[in-house]
Each structure stands twice: as C-alpha cells, then as structure tokens.
C-alpha cells in the first residue's frame, strides 16, 4: 500500500531511506509535496501554521516515492 499525502504533512521533515534529513514539506497539492531543502527557522514556523508555500528552490516528492508517512516522511530506498 502506498502512503498518501495530505495537508496534514505540511511542516513535516522529509527523510531519505538512510535517515538523512532532506527538508520540510512546504505545500501538498494533488498527491505531491513541495519540499524546501533549506528551510529557515521562519519557514519552519510558517509551514507549521500553513502559511508556507512552494517556491523555486523546492523539489517535488510524489506518493509513489514514499515508504511511510508519520511524524516524519520517509522516502523509499529504491528511488
């Protein structure tokens, strides 16, 4: 079963299969998440309250790339 993304994931940390932090979810839209790879403290706070949005430095993570969605979002190892 593939993990799913919802607006509840905004502000969560994205981690690769080896445990490396890759950034935070800035926005979720239609089964894809915009991930900010270098969030500032202010961007962390804004994401937690749902104000942060996608910008040009963000990269996209799709549901088929996910291993688990919980307190953090963990990507599959075989991407």
TrEMBL record:
The protein's name in its UniProt record: PRC-barrel domain-containing protein
């Amino acid at each position: 079963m593939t993990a799913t993304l919802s607006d509840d994931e905004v502000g969560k940390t994205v981690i690769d299969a080896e445990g490396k932090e890759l950034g935070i979810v800035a926005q979720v839209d239609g089964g894809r998440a915009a991930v900010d790879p270098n969030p500032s403290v202010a961007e962390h706070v804004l994401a937690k309250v749902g104000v942060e949005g996608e910008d040009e430095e963000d990269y996209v993570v799709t549901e088929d790339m996910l291993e688990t969605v919980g307190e953090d979002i963990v990507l599959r190892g075989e991407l």
